[in-house]
Amino acid sequence: MSLNIKKSDFVKSASKPSQYPLSSYPEFFFAGKSNSGKSSMLNAICNRKKLARTSKTPGRTQLINFFLVNDCLSFVDIPGYGYASTSKKISNTWNDMVIDYLSSKRNIVSMFITIDVRRGIEELDEKMIDLTSNFNIKTNVVITKSDKVSKSSRFQVKRKIEKTLSKHKNVKYISIFSSKSGEGIQEIHDIIEEMSK
Ligand SMILES: Nc1nc2c(ncn2[C@@H]2O[C@H](COP(=O)(O)OP(=O)(O)OP(=O)(O)O)[C@@H](O)[C@H]2O)c(=O)[nH]1
Ligand SMILES: [Mg+2]
Q1: Any residues with CB less than 8 A from the CB of 134 and at least 6 apart, and which?
Q2: pLDDT digit string (tens) for the chain, length 197 residues
Q3: For a disulfide at 26, which of 161, 173, 186, 196, Cβ 3.0-4.6 Å?
Q4: 74 lines ligand 1 (CB under 6 A)
Q5: Distance between CA atoms of 87 and 108, rounded to whole angstroms?
Q6: Which residue, judged by its Cα, is nearest atom 27 of ligand 1?
C-alpha cells in the first residue's frame, strides 16, 4: 500500500519549542544543505505548488515550519545549512534551533536529508546524519534534482553515497528524486507509509 496524500496544511512556523504546535502524529523532518531542494520536495510529495516556500536564493527557509498531512502525519521543513554567507551568529542560532527540535519529545520517526545530485555528499551532510543518529532517529537520504544529470550519473552518485554512508548505521533508504520530473515521489510515499506504521 502506498501513501495517498489527500490533504496538506501549513500549521505554523516556529523558532523555539514553546512555539511548536502540539502533535503526537508520526513526524518526518526535511533537512539538508541550503538550496538542495527540501521545500520543493515537500511540495512535490504533497502534490502542492506552494505549500512550502521555495527560492533561488539559498537560506529561504529560516524558521522551522510545521505541516499537517492527511490529518494524521506531521511534516517539518527545517532551515538549510551551509550556505557560503552564513555568519557565526546565524550558524549558532541554527545549531540551537535544530538541537532544540531534535531534543523536543516529539514523535519524530525519521529525517529525510536532501542532497543535490550535482554536489554529492559533503562533510556537513555527514555531520547532520551523525547528529540525528545521536538522537536515535533514522535517516533517509534523498538525492535531489535528478533531472539535472543523466540516468547513469544518478546511479553513480547513489553508489558513491552508499559507500560513504556504509558506516552510518542509522541510514535506512537512499532514493533518487526530482520534484521537477516526479522521479522518486512514489518511493518516498512508500517509505513514509512503511515507517509511520
Ligand atoms: N531542476 C530542478 N530544480 C529543482 C528541483 N528541486 C528544487 N529545485 C530548484 O532548486 C532551488 C532551491 O529549491 P528549494 O526547494 O527552495 O531548496 P531548499 O533546500 O528548501 O532551500 P533553503 O530553504 O534555502 O534551505 C529552487 O530554484 C528550485 O526551483 C528539482 O528537482 N529539479
Ligand atoms: Mg526551503
Answers
A1: none
A2: 679 999 999 999 999 999 999 999 999 999 999 999 999 999 999 999 899 888 777 666 689 999 999 999 999 999 999 876 667 777 778 889 999 999 999 999 999 999 999 999 999 999 999 999 999 999 999 999 999 999 999 999 999 999 999 999 999 999 999 999 999 999 999 999 999 99
A3: 196
A4: no
A5: 29
A6: 56
**Whether pTM exceeds 0.85:** yes
CB distance 148 to ligand 1 below 6 Å: yes
Can you tell me which atom of ligand 1 is nearest the CA of 43? 15
Domains of the chain: 8-195 (3.40.50.300)
Judge whether 138 and 67 are in contact, CB under 8 Å: no
User: Is 65 a pocket residue for ligand 1 (Cβ < 6 Å)?
Assistant: no
35 lines ligand 1 (CB under 6 A): yes
